[in-house]
Amino acid sequence: MIAQPQPQLMTPQEYLEWEEQQPLKYDYINGEVFAMTGGTLPHNSIAVNLTSALKNHLRGKGCKVFMADAKVGVSLQGPFHYPDVMVSCDLRDQRSRKIIYHPCLLVEVLSPGTEAFDRGKKFKHYRRIDTLKEYVLIEPDKMNVESYRLNEKGKWELTSYSFEETTANGTELEVYLTSVDFRCPISLLYEDVVFPEDNLEET
Fold first, then answer.
1. 70 and 139 share one domain
2. What share of residues in the chain are helix, strand, coil (percent, to 5)?
């Protein structure tokens, strides 16, 4: 994310109207806009893999799956962000054309430039969405997934999944996204992803 120089703060409505005329996507936080920078190919592959799997899993269940071009609004006043993957099963979002306000699942694929923000302030923003049940962070350079889930006491609990972990019978660990009752081997999320050590082996 790169801050966009501007003479004055924008209102949410000014931002929404202004962004429609821009060639780039922009997050909106407290009157300021931030240009969304492009991700890596592994970043894109992971988002595509998860989106495709979720789309197949949720077909016919009244849920919608979105990728990076879909905007989420924490409230009508913002902040507004572009999560890498998002699912809404809320009737209020079914006919939306520009902004999702009631997601149950938000996913970010981490990158060095945005990891601290995704873990910190962005998660703080997302926690204000009353329909959100799960926030997932996926590392692009190794098979590691972190899922933050809202428990029955209203607290966010972390569950981690790593490729190095195995089940009791020795099979590959499954990632379980409870918000949409979705399970898959962790390797499915990383299909076609080239890791840094793979590049080193080729040189």
1. yes
2. 25, 30, 45
- Give mean pLDDT, residues 3-19: 82
Which 3 state secondary structure label does DSSP give 42? helix
> Residue 51: which CATH number?
3.90.1570.10
**Other beta carbons within 10 Å of 82:** 18
Say what the pLDDT of residue 202 is. 46
Which residues touch 177 (CB under 8 Å, ≥6 apart)? 105, 134, 136, 147, 183
* DSSP 8-state symbol, 132: -
Instruction: Give the 3-state secondary structure of residue 12.
Output: helix
- 196 and 112 part of one domain: yes
Q: Identify the band that residue 38 occupies on the pLDDT scale cut at 50, 70 and 90.
A: confident
- For residue 95, pLDDT over 90 is answered with yes
Tokens of 199: 């590049």
E strand residue ranges, the chain: 2-3, 26-29, 32-35, 64-66, 71-73, 80-81, 85-88, 99-100, 105-109, 134-139, 144-150, 156-162, 174-177, 182-185
Domain that holds residue 140: 40-202
